[in-house]
Design brief:
Elements lengths: L6 E7 L4 E4 L5 E14 L5 E13 H10 L5 E15 L2 E15 L23
Parallel strand pairs: 4-6
Antiparallel strand pairs: 1-3, 1-5, 2-3, 3-4, 5-6
């Protein structure tokens, strides 16, 4: 039976990326992404809501994210959803995140003449 786990998001970084190392020495870059939704209510009022996503980028992609991304940057993120679980006060808790396979910067900083498109090989291996 075929299966598909793929997510595509366009949004703004909610905070600067943070890079950490796993106990095995793998590099992971984490950041939050705010995606705005707009719609018109039945009463004709314009409404807006923001959905927040936790994103992880591993290896070379994580290094590029750490170097080029910052709070407020507009980015396209493609990847897969992953749900992890942990225990807190004897209660099992779950957290769902996006594990990025591709990140593309969509805006320009004031000091950039053209959008930054860092090179990333699509066949690069990620520990997932």
């Amino acid at each position: 039976m075929p299966a598909l786990n793929r997510v595509q998001l366009i949004g703004n970084l909610g905070r600067d990326p943070e890079t950490r190392f796993t106990p095995k020495g793998n590099k992971v870059c984490k950041f939050s992404l705010a995606v705005n939704r707009r719609w018109t209510s039945r009463e004709g009022e314009s409404r807006e809501a923001t959905d927040w996503f936790n994103v992880e980028a591993w290896g070379r992609l994580g290094e590029i994210c750490q170097e080029y991304l910052g709070k407020g940057r507009l980015v396209f993120v493609e990847g897969r959803l992953q749900t992890d679980h942990y225990e807190q006060a004897g209660e099992k808790r779950y957290i769902t995140k996006v594990v990025a396979s591709q990140v593309q910067i969509l805006d320009r900083r004031a000091d950039e003449s053209e959008p930054v498109v860092p090179p990333v090989a699509e066949d690069e291996e990620f520990p997932f």
